[in-house]
């Protein structure tokens, strides 16, 4: 058995067919995916839960609380959904970078 997890990041210029990777060891299967929309993230999670038995979803800071809740609902009760968030000062750094890049 392998621990199966995905890291999902959201970017306005993402091409989900191109911006992805898979890293696999004897004990872990790790997907890394950049999506443009929450709908794309939901579809990906739904597919991996059904086809791969996904255990964990780690979302980057660009996902809102509402989007996290939506992804948890899609993933179901047997999948951990977490968000990579930092401390207060770190969150301000990320918010400023998002602003400079034009994400929000």
What's the layout of helices and strands?
Elements: E1 3-10, E2 20-24, E3 28-35, H1 38-52, E4 56-59, H2 65-75, E5 80-83, H3 88-101
Helix pairs in contact: 1-2
Written overview of the protein:
With 104 residues, this protein is α/β, with parallel strands linked by helices. The protein has a single domain (3-101), classed as 3-Layer(aba) Sandwich (Rossmann fold). Helix content is 38%, strand content 28%. The protein has three helices and five strands. The protein has helices spanning 38-52, 65-75, 88-101, and strands at residues 3-10, 20-24, 28-35, 56-59, 80-83. It has a five-stranded mixed beta sheet, with helices on one face. Helix 1 runs parallel beside helix 2. The longest helix is centred in the middle third of the chain and has 15 residues, at 38-52. The protein is globular, with a radius of gyration of 14 Å.
């Amino acid at each position: 058995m392998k621990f199966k997890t995905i890291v999902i990041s959201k970017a306005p210029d993402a091409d989900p067919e191109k911006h992805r990777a898979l890293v696999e060891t004897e004990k872990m299967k790790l997907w890394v995916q950049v999506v443009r929309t929450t709908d794309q993230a939901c579809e990906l999670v739904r597919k991996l839960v059904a086809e791969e038995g996904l255990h964990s979803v780690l979302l980057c800071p660009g996902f809102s609380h509402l989007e996290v809740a939506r992804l948890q609902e899609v993933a179901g009760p047997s999948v951990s959904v977490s968000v990579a968030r930092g401390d207060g000062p770190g969150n301000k750094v990320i918010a400023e970078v998002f602003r400079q890049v034009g994400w929000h």
